[in-house]
Design a protein that fits this description.
277 residues, mainly alpha, ABC transporter involved in vitamin B12 uptake, BtuC, 14 helices
Length: 277
């Protein structure tokens, strides 16, 4: 068992594991709603639409985190406004807002003479997570998970049947805005530590794998969180052993978990009629 525990003798690996688990669990639970609402590209949209906020923050000498969060908040409000009343589908609204915000970022970049390399915000470095980063990630995780627990019934009902929710007096538009706001907070925090690709993978893939295994939303959340935790640990161990990219290893672990869940779900459907006989 030494090959499993040896990598975590080092403080930077311990910090990386804790960060990946905290971000993974937060994104996985949020991802259950994202997958159910067919908003799989919202994480990618949130991450890329932070660009204008990052550029403005850099030019003003402000915190890049605040700039990115502000831009993600604008994105959340814009998506909710464009897709209000169901006249425009959420995936269409995401595409419209994504391209518009990203174009604003590119325009701002083209107007500045000295542009700081923001690749660390877009690609992240999970092995470089500090203790201060962990406190921020833990605080955001606690806030997001508490909000999801508090508004679980509203989010679940509006995810499955928004029309019935509206008849009961709920406001699906506000619930959608709440979900997008929580996504913005989680994504902006995640991309600083683990990057765009890994954040998107943790947001969508564990939730998609869990959706293949059960139809019950609370069980999906538990499974998605468990899958993301296992992939974070397994990916870090593999990256240490192979001397490969930690982020890519975790993403591939998530992809492998989805493939395994898909194979299991297919086998279960094939053998179910035989058991009935």
């Amino acid at each position: 068992m030494g090959w499993l525990t040896d990598p975590f003798r080092y403080a930077f690996m311990q910090n990386a594991l804790l960060a990946a688990v905290l971000i993974g669990v937060t994104c996985a639970v949020l991802g259950v709603y994202v997958v159910q609402r067919r908003m799989a590209f919202v994480g990618d949209a949130m991450a890329h639409t932070t660009l204008p906020g990052l550029v403005i923050a850099h030019l003003g000498g402000w915190s890049l985190s605040v700039g990115g969060l502000a831009a993600a908040g604008v994105t959340a409000v814009a998506i909710a406004w464009v897709s209000r009343r169901g006249r425009v589908k959420e995936d269409t609204a995401i595409g419209v807002v994504l391209t518009g915000m990203f174009a604003v970022g590119v325009l701002l970049m083209s107007r500045t003479r000295s542009f700081r390399d923001l690749s660390h915000m877009l690609f992240g470095n999970v092995l470089g997570v500090t203790a201060a980063d962990l406190w921020l990630i833990a605080g955001v995780a606690a806030l997001v998970l508490a909000a999801l627990a508090l508004f679980h019934k509203e989010l679940e009902l509006t995810s499955y049947d928004p029309t019935h929710a509206e008849v009961l007096g709920l406001r699906p538009g506000l619930t959608r805005l709440l979900l997008l706001g929580l996504l913005a907070l989680a994504v902006v925090t995640g991309i600083q530590a683990v990057g765009v690709i890994l954040t998107n993978a943790l947001l969508v893939t564990p939730a998609a794998a869990a959706a293949l295994l059960t139809d019950r939303l609370p069980v999906r959340m538990a499974l998605a969180a468990l899958i993301s935790t296992g992939c974070a640990a397994g990916g870090l161990v593999a990256s240490y052993a192979l001397e490969a990219s930690s982020g890519a290893s975790i993403v591939l672990a998530c992809t492998a978990s989805f493939a395994a869940a898909a194979a299991f779900a297919t086998a279960r459907r094939q053998f179910r009629p035989a058991r009935g006989d």
